[in-house]
Amino acid sequence: RTQPQSLLAEANPESHVKKVIGVVSGKGGVGKSLVTSLLASAMQKKGYRAAILDADITGPSIPRMFGVSYKVVGNENGLIPAEAANGTKIMSVNLLLPNETDPVVWRGPIIAGTVKQFWTEVCWGDVDYMFVDMPPGTGDVPLTVFQSLPVDGIVVVTSPQELVGMIVEKAVKMAGMTNTPVLGLVENMAYFECPDCHQKHKIFGDSHIDELAAKHGIEATAQLPINPALAAASDQGKIATVDTADWLDSLTAFIEARHSV
Ligand code: ADP
Fold it and tell me: For ATP, which residues are the binding ones (predicted)?
């Protein structure tokens, strides 16, 4: 890495995190948190110890997706992350706020500082793969987060419409600024599969994912359908129970191979 070491925050002494994967998107609402949760759950299912650092401070949705609502506690070494039913460790601002419906109206530097504290002041313990649900966009806050955490690679989540835009280029450029490899490109809501005839309907038109991945030298891609079961599972806190093998297997296998622990 050629990232300026001075910006990197030091991990808590009680943390032994082997790989850190950032999950980014161009804007909110494209399914970044959903993909983060599914990737962590898939790795946990493979037998790894997974964790999620919820850096999406103004829109924290990870705890809800895993059905975790208790408040985290600390000891003399720092905060103890929450643990979902499947064993995935989670830290989110929602687990600290007295009332999780309170809006977080903090400014950029405070947000970036909080994310940094989730790295320096949380006792993560032994973690094989930590997924960071990044603040949406490619602005100042995600860039600062990038520079302060030792991110090994990123996964870019987009919607079909964004694929034709410049969002992927921007995310790739941001990753390039910190010399972070782009591991995968996920197209969320790529199609809808009819439950009766199993035909795949491309609601937003043909996909451009393969040409974009080729253009940027991104080796792994994944497509997720619009699926009511995904929405229901995330609303009901059961995201870890969704079987994602058909959609995410090649991406998780690539992460495993490229960043073995
Ligand atoms: P982001 O983190 O990008 O803001 P989320 O992951 O929170 O977006 O997703 C926004 C909402 O859309 C959530 O309620 C989620 O359950 C729903 N959603 C996302 N992707 C899908 C999908 N492929 N099928 C059905 N619902 C989805």
Answer: 26-33
- Name the pTM for this structure: 0.95
Cα 54 to ligand 1 centroid, rounded to whole Å:
15
> Sign (positive/negative) of CA torsion 23, 58, 234, 201?
negative
Distance 28 CA to ligand 1 centre (A): 9
Residue nearest to atom 5 of ligand 1 (CA): 31
Please state, in angstroms and rounded to a whole number, the distance separating the CA atoms of residues 170 and 188.
18
pLDDT (0 to 100) of residue 168: 82
Structural domain containing residue 109: 13-256
CATH of the domain at 107: 3.40.50.300
2 domain residue, yes or no? no
pLDDT of 26 reads 86
158 lines ligand 1 (CB under 6 A): no
Cα of 1 vs centre of ligand 1, distance in Å, is 33
Q: Is 64 in the pocket of ligand 1 (CB under 6 A)?
A: no
**Annotated binding-site members for ATP:** 26-33
Quote the mean pLDDT of the chain: 91
- Would the CB of 125 count as within 6 Å of ligand 1? no
ipTM over 0.95: yes
Query: What is the C-alpha to C-alpha distance for residues 141 and 135, in angstroms, rounded to an integer?
Result: 7
Domain count for the chain: 1
Give the distance from CA 248 to its chain's centroid: 14
Query: Is the pLDDT at 5 greater than 70, yes or no?
Result: no
Residues in a beta bridge with 250:
none
